[in-house]
């Protein structure tokens, strides 16, 4: 992907801004209190209880851990439950395959690619790849299925799709991990029918992204209790067990105290929907239905310079035969509605 960094308003990603004011206010308000560290502070404890309520789960079912980044969440979750010869299965567009600098491979685990459908893992394609990886002990042994919700293409898994994958994993003795960097926009999408409790029931590990949903940084990993023993040791070895864990606890408490997390996610989705609808009204072609906060649209190359003067975006895929480019526009919890209006006006004139 080629970043376009020449104009004032950014639709490059959903983490261009710092943090929601309420989180900053909470950090200032609690700043002078003395707290213990490494996840034992009262704010992290409060955040865990608020999340357990949202999950409709108990401490006997899952444990919750806070880490500073999505890459840390993925590599720690994966490395914590795999033996050295065990492999991860991920769709070819999966984030861990080409956007984490080989972080998973650096933990000693092979990633086996699986063809995706609209960015999603399907039981049929997963079964096919599993059947091609059985020459043991000469091949890495498939053990964990990695998916993202929302996916890299902005699509979301239905409850039935999640259940079918879960059923297959359990039949084949596979673990299942859900990357939740954009879990907020997935759960608040108009097409969504998945609840947080479903993730407890159908997965082994999942995480809830704060970085892309109004936090300065931070992700909450939810681990099935049977896999949770020693998880803190993995966090410590990977440099993700923070002495000032309070900073993460305060932010997640504020996000989940009264629904702010979901409110911000709905805003991001609504802004993306407005942009996508305007493109469609004016006859521009989307490469995928806009389900969450990412819009993928085909732009004639002749129009790119004009668009670059107005917004920042990613050139996702070059199409030389048609002299056009698929671009990605991403909205966020903080996207300015007036900037969406300006973009929609430009679309209507072009």
Model description:
The protein has helices spanning about 20-30, 40-55, 70-80, 95-100, 105, 125-130, 160-170, 185, 195-200, 230-235, 245-255, 260-280, 305-310, 335-350; strands at about 1-5, 10, 60-65, 85-90, 110-115, 140-150, 175-180, 205-210, 220-225, 295-300, 310, 315-320, 325-330. It is an alpha/beta fold and about 350 residues long. It folds into two domains: about 10-15 and about 260-350, Aspartate Aminotransferase, domain 1 (Alpha-Beta Complex), CATH 3.90.1150.10; about 20-260, Type I PLP-dependent aspartate aminotransferase-like (Major domain) (Aspartate Aminotransferase, domain 2, 3-Layer(aba) Sandwich), CATH 3.40.640.10. The protein has a seven-stranded mixed beta sheet with strand order 3-9-8-7-6-4-5, with helices on both faces. Strands 1-12-13-10 form a four-stranded antiparallel beta sheet. Helix 7 (about 160-170) links the parallel strand 6 (about 140-150) and strand 7 (about 175-180). The model is unreliable at about 1-5 (pLDDT under 50). Keywords: Pyridoxal phosphate. Its cofactor is pyridoxal 5'-phosphate.
CATH superfamily of the largest domain: Type I PLP-dependent aspartate aminotransferase-like (Major domain)
Please give the count of helices: 14
Largest sheet: 7 strands, mixed
Round the mean pLDDT to the nearest integer and report it: 96
Strand arrangement, major sheet: 3-9-8-7-6-4-5
Please name the CATH architecture of the largest domain: 3-Layer(aba) Sandwich
Radius of gyration (Å): 21 Å
State the end-to-end CA separation: 24 Å
The shape is: globular
Structural class assignment: alpha/beta
Which topology of the largest domain does CATH recognise?
Aspartate Aminotransferase, domain 2
CATH class membership of the largest domain: Alpha Beta
What share of the residues lie within helices? 25-40%
Low-pLDDT windows of residues? 1-6
Number of domains: 2
> Roughly what fraction of the amino acids lie in strands?
15-25%
How many distinct beta strands?
A: 13
Helix-strand string: EEHHEHEHHEHEHEHHEEHHHEHEEEH
């Amino acid at each position: 992907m080629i970043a376009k960094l020449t104009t004032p308003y950014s639709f490059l990603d959903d983490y261009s801004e710092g943090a929601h004011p309420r989180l900053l206010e909470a950090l200032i308000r609690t700043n002078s209190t003395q707290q213990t560290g490494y996840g034992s502070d009262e704010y992290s404890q409060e955040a865990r209880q608020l999340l357990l309520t949202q999950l409709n789960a108990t401490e006997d079912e899952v444990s919750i851990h806070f880490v500073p980044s999505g890459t840390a969440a993925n590599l720690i979750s994966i490395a914590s439950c795999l033996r050295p010869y065990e492999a991860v299965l991920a769709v070819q567009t999966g984030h861990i395959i080409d956007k984490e600098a080989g972080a998973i491979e650096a933990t000693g685990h092979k990633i086996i690619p699986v063809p995706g459908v609209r960015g999603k893992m399907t039981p049929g394609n997963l079964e096919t790849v599993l059947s091609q990886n059985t020459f043991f002990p000469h091949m890495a042994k498939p053990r964990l299925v990695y998916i993202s919700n929302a996916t890299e293409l902005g699509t979301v898994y239905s409850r039935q799709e999640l259940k079918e994958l879960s059923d297959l994993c359990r039949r084949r003795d596979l673990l299942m991990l859900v990357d939740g960097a954009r879990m907020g926009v997935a759960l608040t999408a108009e097409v969504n029918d998945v609840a947080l409790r479903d993730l407890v029931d159908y997965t082994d590990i999942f995480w809830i992204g704060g970085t892309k949903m109004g936090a300065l940084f931070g992700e909450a990993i939810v681990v099935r209790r049977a896999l949770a023993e020693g998880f803190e040791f993995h966090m410590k070895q990977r440099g993700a067990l923070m002495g000032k864990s309070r900073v993460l606890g305060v932010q997640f408490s504020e996000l989940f105290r009264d629904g702010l997390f979901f409110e911000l996610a709905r805003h991001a989705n609504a802004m993306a929907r407005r942009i996508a609808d305007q493109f469609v009204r004016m006859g521009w072609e989307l490469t995928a239905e806009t389900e969450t906060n990412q819009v993928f649209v085909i732009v004639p190359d002749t129009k790119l310079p004009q668009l670059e003067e107005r917004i920042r975006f990613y050139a996702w895929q070059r199409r030389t035969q048609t002299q056009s480019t698929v671009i990605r526009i991403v909205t966020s919890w903080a996207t300015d509605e007036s900037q969406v209006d300006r973009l929609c006006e430009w679309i209507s004139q072009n």
